[in-house]
Amino acid sequence: MIGQGTAGRLQQARWPRRPGAAAAAGTPRCRAAPRCRAAHPQPLRPWPSQLRCASSLAAASTAEAGAAATAEAQQEEEGAGDAPAKTEQRKRVLSGVQPTGKLHLGNYMGAIKNWVPLQDDYDTFFCVVDLHAITVQHDPKDLRAATRNMAAAYLAAGIDPDKASIFVQSHVGAHSELSWLLECTTPMGWLQRMIQFKEKARKQGEDVRAGLLTYPVLMAADILLYGADLVPVGEDQKQHLELTRDIAERVNHLYGGKAWKKRGGRGGRVLKVPEPFIPPAGARIMSLQDGTAKMSKSAENDASRINLTDDAAAIASKIKR
């Protein structure tokens, strides 16, 4: 029921009258709806049926609210003390090996050996980086076979497909797409300062390819594409990972943050900046022929490395030399 104060204000309102009507005659009407009685000489009261309906709705709403509150309280009491704790999202690890030559002791000690325990504690992605292998002269048929053999070597070393993701780099087109986008952001001077580029360019002379210069950008795309938190790298690859971090921070500065958001961009952090994971031992296994160079699959002299497929006699012969 409407209160007496509200009814009194409605009765005292100055409602417009129809032209020609006597001041004391008739009932004031609403201008917007002439047939709707907007004011009454008596206090406004709803019909008894409306009162019963409103009372029923109010009672039902009150009962439902009370039942919901009681059920919620019971759930809180039952779930108190045994609510599952929020699980932290596991960090992501990415690494890969080129399918060039045979896997040797340096690959195993510096990379693959450390991958096996990582797959139990992290979300791991292990890639056969075949696109990196075409920066030098190669035979496509041999490269395809070497790619399959490298994937098989991952499995033989203990990488479990049920725990880790194993894939071939060239099978995911986004690697090349992101690499091009990052190349358009990376200053040329950053790439020319890479030590490995200087060494290989000096050996290859005029035959050095542009892919060798932009190799670190493709490596950065491999890492940043999956939002990796940690990257297992050898000591010789640490500079490349530092470049990856620089590229990620540059992209975040140019295309993230509040300034870019004002121009319609997404703002915030665009790329995750990864951290290096360098094993305490075996990060850099040296060549058996040259103590100043690391053991390499691409070295012409097979006696400079211990391949994982070498038998005991071959290993003994290489060490005796």
Report on the structure:
The protein is mainly alpha-helical and 321 residues long. The chain has a domain at 92-284: HUPs (Rossmann fold). The protein is built from eleven helices and five strands. The chain has helices at 4-12, 48-79, 105-121, 140-157, 174-183, 188-192, 195-204, 210-224, 238-255, 257-262, 312-320; strands spanning 92-97, 123-128, 164-168, 230-232, 275-277. The strands form two sheets. The protein has a three-stranded parallel sheet, covered by helices on one side. Strands 4-5 form a two-stranded parallel ribbon. Helix 3 links the parallel strand 1 (92-97) and strand 2. Helix 5 packs across helix 8 (210-224) and helix 8 crosses helix 9. The chain is globular and about 65 Å long.
